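Supplementary Data S3. Sequence and structure tokens for construct A.
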Amino acid sequence: MARWCAKFGEAEAIAMQSAQANTPLHPALLLACGNSLRRDDGVGLKIAEAAEHLFPASRLRIVAATQFTPEMAAELAETELAIFVDASADDEPGSIRVLPVTAHDDNPETHRLDPPALLAMAQSLCGHAPARAFVLTIGAGSFGYGEEISGPLRQAVPRALRLVTNLVAAFAPQA
């Protein structure tokens, strides 16, 4: 574990020490991914941006990226509640799903991690994973080039934010 911490830097090493001491640095973590240049695929980033205006950093740490990456395992090791946010091409545009997620490490592929593999990586490499984790997906249908999300997704963003608020209120320890 120390070797992994050395690879990723001093900040992550501090996070690992905190995780080992079972004292989370953040009550809740929102990990959002998406591509803001591929229309509806950017909905996770829109939700992350809106959540930044709703929550103080001491209540919800927000990380937004184009995809989930191994470095996020250190972030997960610092919290007791994780909320993964992403678009879903499998669901009706604008529909929202929230599902609990647990760790699994069935051949984790580090170039594209899903939430269960990332949780497993946090546990195995950092010694701690959140006590609770959820995947919040928003059905998306338009993945062409452009920066605007479609109408159904614009309407879904406030509903998704309410769900994030409810999850944080119900499951995040008080700071």
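Construct B, processed identically:
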Amino acid sequence: MDHNCYTSYVCVARKAGEFWDREIAAPTHVSWMEDPLILQSIHERIGGATPASAGDWFVARLNGRTFERGLSVGCGVGNLEREAVRRNVCRKIDALDCSLYSLRVAKRDADNEGFSDRIHYFASDFNQPVLPRNTYDIVFFNQSLHHVAKLEKLLRAILLAMKPDAVLYLDEYVGPSRTQWNEVIAPHRAVFASLPPAIRKSNFLPLPIQADDPSEAIRSGEIMEQLSIGFDFEAVRGYGGNLLAVLYPLMDWRRTPDQLKARLIEQDREWATRGSYYAVLVARPSRGLRKLFALMRWSFRLEPFWSRNPGRRPP
């Protein structure tokens, strides 16, 4: 990647949008959540005694509460918004993304379901948010916040855009940032090397970094800390991915023996006890002096040091 481009948030957003335009049109990404056994384990970790998807768990927590107006940040092809409208969780939703192709697909599918008057899609850069104040009753993040470089700027805008009694819903990758993987990859490589060669698609486990998308996991390791500055967590359900999200894309899972699948799923569950890489959470915006403190703190951190110094790269 061009060095000057790397330090430009505008360029990062443009390259990310181009990547997702291609990815939606011709998918190449392999998700660890696509396997039924792994998905069952995820639902068990989210729902506990009553296994549930993240959406079902959230709707059950609402206990019948509905919202007038919502905001979906990083909507992709619009699955979350259509589901929220179908289930009458939200009457109207504004939804933004940086991928124009994704937005076209989302709008087409919403129109086909008769939701054109309830879901408003628009293009926007996560790092340059322009949002109305005191407007939204609920804000959704669905695997999108880990693509944001200017966490402070976006979260400040979100906090100001939410009504005092609003709800924040987030289903997100909160594991290591892309610059941290050299420090934590060794255990993953050891497990990968121990797998039977017949089920490995590669002899070596590379760093799980999406080279074509410079926004991928750009500051994911800071998400929970930054959220805690301006939001009160009501419920957090970590559902793992610490091992399987890294290994699964380079495994032939269909040829993996059932006993080994069970062992890897259990190992993933164990690793997640030390800090889950994926989590779903519900939070409330802070109020009073704590809200003021959060806004001030984020204001002083709107630009990381390296972004103000074109000659420096991030550590």
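The domain at 3-306 is CATH 3.40.50.150 (Rossmann fold). The chain is about 40% helix and 20% strand.
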